[in-house]
Amino acid sequence: MALEGSLSDFGLPDILQLIYFQRKTGVLTLEGKMDRVRLLFIEGNVASAESKRRMEDNRLGKILLKKGFIKEPDLKAALEEHRRTGNKLGNILVSRELVQKEAIKDILKSQITETVIQIFGWKQGTYEFSTQGVPQDKEFSFSLDTQHLLMEGLRIVDEWSLIKGKLTLDTVFMKKVESPSNLTEDEKEIFNHVDGENDVSTIIDISSKDNFEVSKTLVSLLEKGAIQTIEAAPVAPMEASAEVKKQIAFLNYLPLAAVIFSLIISFSILIFTQGNVLKEFKASQQVEDLRFSIETYRLEHAAYPQTLEVLSDSADPWGRKYIYRVSENSFFLSSAGADGREGTGDDIF
To answer: Is residue 224 part of a domain?
Structure first.
């Protein structure tokens, strides 16, 4: 089935209905201004959802930690294994017997639901559905009823007009007062989850409550003055340190040639440092894009690519090949960083 076009012409509800009623298995890719989302379908029902903007493994770990299912040292060790091996965090936690499978499955279902529902708010973007085989995770094999997600999404879109523009799933709140009065029991519960770190989607997962109800409660707390949104702090103008001021004063006594030479060295060091920062940022972006391509290849071919060359021949920003190793069920991908040596502190995963 060839299905692609613009969301402004053919909305998500119509796309979901078509896939559901024709019991299609494949991948629906949606690209919007702020995100790229892939929905995986098995016989018309949603089996998985992947957002490029939001790293699901990181969210899963944070939610398990906030809910008290796991302790921070155990989570850090599991995340390190995840970065090293490429295995999914949920599988690692279950194999280490740190978290029950059902607890992880419930959170994953909630995350899929949130990802699907937030797309209902997209007015612009593109979509493409590709009919293909979709392998399921052996540990977490399930699918969500597309009709249920459709009805839930339409309901929330209808109700969302009441709180439109006041928050998004990525909004982070902090407490404005420690012990506000005149709060309902529901408001008190949600207020306790506000800590300056949890975004709205995390609070929804922790509370195990309805997406819209949590959002509406947060707006109520905002209007009562109990919480406030966290805004990025303005960048203050840089002031020269005492050491720098001393160096500038010292330069006044040097011959002109020496001053010029000193400035050339200083600027060279500055350019080298900034250049590495930019290269590190670019490398992290390339690694993320490659991971997405590798997972896409696995979905299409039921196996990871044996070499990166089948996907891309690009080198890292330092002109070296990315480090890639593959096993039967996982892969490892990284850049050796500026020093070119694997296993050092500047490696980029």
So the answer is: yes
Is the separation of the CB atoms in 126 and 17 below 8 Å? no
Same structural domain, 91 and 25: yes
Do 154 and 14 fall into the same domain? yes
Distance separating alpha carbons of residues 234 and 253, to the nearest angstrom: 37
Domain boundary among 160, 184, 204: 160
Q: Does residue 135 sit in the same domain as residue 24?
A: yes
The per-residue pLDDT for range 32-71, each reduced to its tens digit, is: 877 789 999 999 999 888 887 665 556 777 778 877 888 8
Cα distance between residue 242 and residue 245, in whole Å: 5
**Quick one: tokens of 252?**
């006044």
Residues 177 and 155 in one domain: no
The number of C-alpha atoms within 13 Å of 112 and in the hemisphere containing its C-beta is 23
The amino acid occupying position 10 is F
Cβ-Cβ contacts under 8 Å for 104 (sequence gap 6 or more): 60, 64, 90, 93, 94, 140
**pTM beyond 0.85, yes or no:** no
> pLDDT per residue over 161-172, tens digit each?
666 677 777 788
Average pLDDT over residues 232-236: 42
Q: 160, 186, 213: which is the final residue of a domain?
A: 160
Q: Is residue 168 part of a domain?
A: no
Query: What is the rounded CA–CA span in Å between residue 260 and residue 233?
Result: 37
User: Which residues on adjacent β-strands are paired with residue 78?
Assistant: none
Whether residues 284 and 323 fall in one domain: yes
- Which residues form the domain of 32? 3-56+85-160
Strand segments, DSSP code E, in the chain are 3-6, 26-31, 36-42, 45-51, 126-131, 173-175, 227-229, 323-326, 331-334
DSSP sequence for 215-274: HHHHHHHHHTTSEEE--PPPPPPP---HHHHHHHHHHTTS-HHHHHHHHHHHHHHHHHHH
- Is 36 in contact with 29 (CB distance < 8 Å)? yes
